[in-house]
Specification:
Elements (H helix, E strand, L loop, with lengths): L18 H5 L6 E6 L5 E2 L14 E6 L2 E10 L11 E8 L6 E6 L12 E9 L6 E8 L2
Antiparallel strand pairs: 1-2, 1-3, 4-5, 4-7, 5-6, 7-8
Bound molecules: zinc ion.
Length: 142
């Protein structure tokens, strides 16, 4: 991460199902539950694969590469958080384009954002007494 102050964020509450996703950044990994029978990545976490209803699920890391599907630029300081203007983005992971994450595009000025651009994950670390959170954000790949 660049040398900037980490902004205030409303953080998720960890549980056994979502912990892999929110803490994988400690090892630099973007992790999802994946069906071990059909290979489908499941997000948000569910106890069953939505494709074949298998319960044979395991956590796996993906490459962290994604595509910017759409975005909007926020110019208003609606609540404590990142300093505007900042980019709210929806990205699709390359391993499974139907898996979309709502995130922020960082290290990118709004004029440089382009739908379809390749992006990669970066993690924003938030120390927390119940377990540190690593928010997956994305930056331009090039
Ligand atoms: Zn499956």
């Amino acid at each position: 991460m660049p040398d900037i102050e980490v902004p205030f964020r409303i953080l998720p509450r960890l549980n056994d199902r979502n912990r892999a996703f929110w803490t994988g950044g400690a090892e630099g990994e973007l992790r999802f539950w994946r069906c071990q029978d059909c290979g489908f990545y499941i997000h948000p976490p569910q106890p069953l694969c939505p494709i074949d209803y298998s319960k044979n699920l395991a956590v796996e890391a993906v490459s962290g590469r994604a595509t910017l599907t759409t975005y909007t630029v926020n110019y208003q300081n609606w609540m404590p958080g990142p300093e505007p203007p900042y980019i709210v983005a929806i990205v699709e992971i390359v391993e499974q384009p139907s898996l979309r994450l709502t995130t922020n595009l960082v290290n990118c000025v709004p004029d440089d954002a382009r739908i379809g651009m390749p992006v990669r994950v970066v993690f924003e670390h938030h120390p927390d007494p119940e377990g540190d959170i690593y928010l997956p954000l994305f930056e331009p790949e090039n």
